[in-house]
């Protein structure tokens, strides 16, 4: 299978409800015209000829995400070739996770919109209630042990995953320093200048 500089290729899985089996395909995506093509890996033959498909964008094509190609939900499980891996990783797209503490809930719409305005794409967003099991797990994790978990127990917590170029550092810059007084003095436009938010579990999307 040849790969031009305008073509990116991914290994994807699709659960066929008629046969109750998971089928594996190569999904080819052309960055110049956003056309797609699907090749059945097992049969080594074209399943869907190159065609345009609304709603499939390069920014959505990363390992772990799912995209809809016509009526099929395709789970991206890997890159199909070294070129695609190197090309996409050179753009340095990353994912990062953060949360709002309960007292920020009345401002969550405003704060989430602020992140969108800074170019973040939301991958997942959930609202959870912290219980003792979550509290124990976070206290034992090096990446979350510093978070004052007691302040998370007085209401629902909004946890979200975002994606952007250089998302890990960019999210830290938008949030501002952990010291709120420093945020108010030196970073007046940061999220922490108006509301406390703790970033945790930075996830670099490879």
TrEMBL record:
<feature type="domain" description="DM10">
    <location>
        <begin position="4"/>
        <end position="92"/>
    </location>
</feature>
<keyword id="KW-0206">Cytoskeleton</keyword>
<dbReference type="GO" id="GO:0016301">
    <property type="term" value="F:kinase activity"/>
</dbReference>
<keyword id="KW-0808">Transferase</keyword>
<keyword id="KW-0418">Kinase</keyword>
<keyword id="KW-0966">Cell projection</keyword>
<protein>
    <submittedName>
        <fullName>Nucleoside diphosphate kinase 7</fullName>
    </submittedName>
</protein>
<comment type="similarity">
    <text>Belongs to the NDK family.</text>
</comment>
<dbReference type="GO" id="GO:0005879">
    <property type="term" value="C:axonemal microtubule"/>
</dbReference>
<dbReference type="InterPro" id="IPR006602">
    <property type="entry name" value="DM10_dom"/>
</dbReference>
<keyword id="KW-0963">Cytoplasm</keyword>
<dbReference type="InterPro" id="IPR036850">
    <property type="entry name" value="NDK-like_dom_sf"/>
</dbReference>
């Amino acid at each position: 299978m040849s790969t031009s500089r305008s073509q990116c290729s991914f290994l994807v899985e699709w659960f066929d409800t008629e046969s109750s089996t998971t089928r594996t395909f190569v999904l080819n995506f052309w960055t110049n015209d956003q056309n797609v093509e699907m090749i059945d890996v097992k049969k080594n033959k074209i399943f869907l000829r190159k065609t345009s498909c609304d709603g499939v964008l390069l920014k959505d094509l990363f390992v772990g995400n799912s995209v809809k190609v016509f009526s099929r939900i395709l789970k991206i499980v890997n890159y199909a070739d070294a070129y695609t891996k190197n090309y996409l990783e050179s753009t340095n797209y990353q994912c990062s996770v953060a949360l709002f503490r309960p007292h920020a809930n009345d401002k969550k719409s405003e704060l989430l919109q602020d992140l969108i305005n800074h170019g973040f794409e939301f991958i997942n967003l959930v609202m959870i209630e912290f219980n003792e099991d979550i509290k124990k797990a976070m206290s034992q994790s090096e990446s979350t042990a510093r978070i004052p978990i007691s302040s998370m127990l007085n209401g629902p917590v909004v946890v979200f995953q975002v994606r952007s170029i250089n998302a890990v550092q960019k999210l830290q810059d938008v949030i501002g320093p952990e010291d709120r007084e420093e945020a108010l003095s030196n970073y007046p436009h940061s999220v922490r200048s108006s509301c406390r938010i703790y970033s945790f579990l930075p996830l670099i999307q490879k």
